[in-house]
Amino acid sequence: MSSIQDIKGVGETTAKLLVKLGLQSPIDLIENIPRKYDDYSRVMSVRSIKPGPVTIQARIHAITSRYSKKGLHITEALASDSTGSVKIMWFNQRYRAQSLNPDAEYFISGDFAQSYRYLVIANPSCELVSAFPLHTARLVPQYRLTKGLSANQLRKFTKNAFDQTKVTETLPQWIVDEKELVDRRTALFSMHFPESLMAVDKARKRLGFEELFEMSLASALNKQDFAQEKAQHIPFSESTVVEFVKSLSFELTNDQRKSAWAVLQDMTSGSPMNRLLEGDVGSGKTVVATIAMLNVAADGKQSVLMAPTELLATQHANTIEKILPKGVASQVVLLSAGMKKQQKDAAKLAIKKGDARLIIGTHALIQDKVEFNDLGLAVIDEQHRFGVEQRKKLQSKAKTMPHILNMTATPIPRSLTLTLYGEMDVSIIAEKPGNRTSTTTKILLPEQRKTLYESLKSVMDNGRQIFVVCPLIEEGEAKAARSLSVESIHKQLKSWLKGYEVALLHGKMPASDKQAIMNDFIKNKINVLVSTTVIEVGVDIPNASVMIVEGADKFGLAQLHQLRGRVGRGVHAGSCYLIPTDNDSVPKRLRVLESENDGFKLAEYDLELRGPGAIYGTMQHGALDLRVAKITDTKMIAEARSAALAYIKKGENLLKYPQLKVHVDRLRTITNLN
Ligand code: ADP
Ligand code: MG
């Protein structure tokens, strides 16, 4: 790769600034998509200009410089063409006067607007008239900038990069032809210096297609490779599973049945399962995982369930142990950072010897510290990133590739499932368990808080418990309208709710303290648990019926939905109260939560309201920084996907397309987004 300093005009200092923007080579500059365009493409006569963005072609004369009373440096001049003159002004651009040649013609682009008493063009860009202006008289590209680097410089460097670099085609020619795409160089050049908005559209179409094609290809190739791995054939132990299902205190929902069936089938196939189980909070994914793990244990093999936090791992271990028949329950082993060394060693030994067949712990712990005897299945709970690397790590711990079941409560709009989860098979639990009393959600203003907490005394007297979640408040922010830190809310509630047990839980507490508090909460020794979002994912406390979110405007839609999913899980109807920071900060998404309970619908809504970033945000992904394509463009997604499948079917070899290979190989390590 040639260096950015090879570009004409880029010295050491500028290079550093460009690197700051992630631009390390000429091709980086070329692929640096503008954030927007200012339309200065119409060149008008001076007489015909109207307030707004304008471009004229004129001579600049009567140039004077002065300082205003306030010390502002002002350069004034007149710009004239054959139809008239207009005043132009620059503020604090001392070099301007010297840089202008009164005998030359310039393109002058800027905003024609009222400044003091006159209409003037203030701070215009101007450049000598030429056949290919960069900063004026065109659709002018605007870029992300950094201090010390101007838009003019970036445009010039980008143009130079094109002059000095050969941009080659990355897509197979038959795809370019078939899809009627413009070639790569043309597309990128039009992206920066378009002749028209139509040219931008064509460029976007080409580059967007390329992005989605590469993504689809990466996940299709991953899927193909994965399917070629050998995995253990794990037979369906019908009687064990049927008996277990019968022993449950509830009937499985249809979706649970279907998902469990798909999982059991996958494991008999001999090639590794890579399935995503997607279901809203409280939809009952754990029992599906338990069926899978039980089935593996019945075959004498091991399963591991990895949870994102210690808390969840512990809870999973407890739940699963409780619902399994005694013989199998004794094969459940929890591995938790909070355990004493002796216990941990004993657990690890049991895992190594194979006595432990259902192993539960956090991702970190399992991936780093554990040796298995015969690992057949890995269940991954609520982790947004389990990619090729993590999978390899797991594989190295097993005789063959373990079957993998990913579980997520982050509902993805159906239209996006294929793009985001292209390399997995997907099962969805859409229906809620039948006994589920839905949770009502209400926005309350801060001034209603005291009354609310007062009214909740009777709820607590009836034995129910309450979650209060506070946003993470940075030190600097602490002087907000009212203090929302967990500590201060905890203190306040203790004084408001005398005679009730109000406990505090936050991320920075030692694991053992957290565990102790959680245990007390589970045992109903605590009435109100004030916490940060440590309780967000997965915690299951059927006796808790009220969720109060303080500073609710500081949370995203998906997160709030997750939080309220913590209540209304048992036989008791749940209530969720969203309390914004102050009366003026009630964002629309809070209203949406009041009326909508369906996680999938909320995800669709989020996508519409805030764009894909909303969804990615909750997924903590790193892969899908789509630069051009829109993730909502389902038609293009489908086309790109079918082109990728056609490419594979043709038996095309990536080695024939070295640049495409570089892109796809990078994506292959990060596309598995679950
Ligand atoms: P999640 O999908 O969020 O992980 P869980 O697996 O924790 O949900 O299940 C939530 C609660 O619902 C648990 O208390 C579980 O015992 C209960 N549950 C699961 N399936 C059913 C069902 N079919 N009928 C009634 N309750 C169920
Ligand atoms: Mg769960």
Quick rundown:
The chain has 25 helices and 21 strands.
Overview of the molecule:
- By secondary structure, the protein is α/β, with parallel strands linked by helices.
- It is built from 25 helices and 21 strands.
- The strands form four sheets. Strands 11-12-10-13-14-9-15 form a seven-stranded parallel beta sheet, with helices on both faces. Strands 16-21-20-17-19-18 form a six-stranded parallel beta sheet, sandwiched between helices. Strands 3-4-5-7-6 form a five-stranded mixed β-barrel.
- The two termini are 33 Å apart.
- 42% of the residues are buried.
- The model is unreliable at 618-623 (pLDDT under 50).
What characteristics describe this protein?
six-stranded parallel beta sheet; 40% helix; alpha/beta; 25 helices; seven-stranded parallel beta sheet; binds magnesium ion; 21 strands; binds adenosine-5'-diphosphate
The description of the largest β-sheet is: 7 strands, parallel
Small molecules (ligands, ions, cofactors) in the structure: adenosine-5'-diphosphate, magnesium ion
* Oligomeric nature of the chains: single chain
Radius of gyration: 31 Å
Largest sheet: spatial strand order: 11-12-10-13-14-9-15
- Tell me, what's the shape? globular
The average pLDDT is 89
Number of helices, counting only DSSP H or I runs of 4 residues or more: 25
Supply the helix-strand structural class.
Answer: alpha/beta
Distance N terminus to C terminus? 33 Å
- Residues in β-strands, percent: 15-25%
- Percent of residues in helical segments? 40-55%
Please mark out the parts with pLDDT under 50 across 5 or more consecutive residues, or reply none.
618-623
* Number of strand elements: 21
